[in-house]
């Protein structure tokens, strides 16, 4: 078989588009930058509004808004700007320290959770917006001798409404600082971190297409016309709607072998094109291949927008870090395995494996390849067991994980058989190095898997 031609080099537009897409979703700067732009607009517009309505304010408003002269207005605006910038520096420093703790104690992949935190972004946005707004308004405060004609026509001018808003924003910053500190102390604890990642994975599961019945997935032999990846990195998003439209227009079947989360190499096939009935498509129009390639977006790191297994990977990273000799925190590992089992149960309910997209004529047009149950269990059981082979408590938690999965689908004999195989793997690894007491506990936990079939399994508290 001929080797497919190399993919054309990625254009600058592709790289900028991918960077912006990721930055808006999970970076610190977009929301604060938007607040700064809004502050500049308000700082320019409100003094003009003040100049237009200064003599027409209702009596009750005159007693509420700022009533000092130009010198007092300068002092207030300068004090607000200086204090807010100092607090902003403190907030930024605390955020950086939190990111360092999260990276060292939990996992570097959890940094996206912290930088994408709405409370952190909103707090920085309020502080930076207040600082910028106060500076912009400060430039319009003038004595009678130096007032610009375009603002006041040469008269003394104090933008009372604008200064009042600056004071209100300063009070809001104080309240936001208290809320930020309370939120930060919560976010650096492992349980809220695991819960946030779990919720993100659950939300992704509700967005992605459910897995199809294995009997309905077309049997494709990998001989279709290749669609090379445009970049090297991780697949972040597959534009399913555009991909489905292309497949409908050209009466094709698209096999997306590199679904979100997969690592791809530039020029290597990320998808293959087939005829509608699954027959190999030996040659495809280069323009069509390029259009399909553009629907598969690639970034420098994994994201969870269409990849529910990314949340699973993040939690497993925390579990493995907790089991490392340098950390030695089995309690965190046990809590993490609990979240892993919950996510796997949700994945099992939605159906692990490949998903199908159907066109307008209800014909299968797109096959999205995803990890099956075997791959998920390899990650959840095999990886953890490799680092906890001498810890009966972790082994017991893995047995509970298998029992929970069995409880999700107790009548699926194929699933139960696979779970029994994993159970034996756990026992074979841990029992040889366990004490007699630990063996009895592990064998009792292993027996719970067989009780699921009869509906007699109960969840019990564990120390």
From TrEMBL:
Keywords: Membrane, Transmembrane, Transmembrane helix. The keyword Transit peptide does not apply. The chain crosses the membrane at residues 28-49, 76-99, 119-141, 161-182. InterPro entries: DUF2254_membrane. This is DUF2254 domain-containing protein. It comes from Kineococcus gynurae.
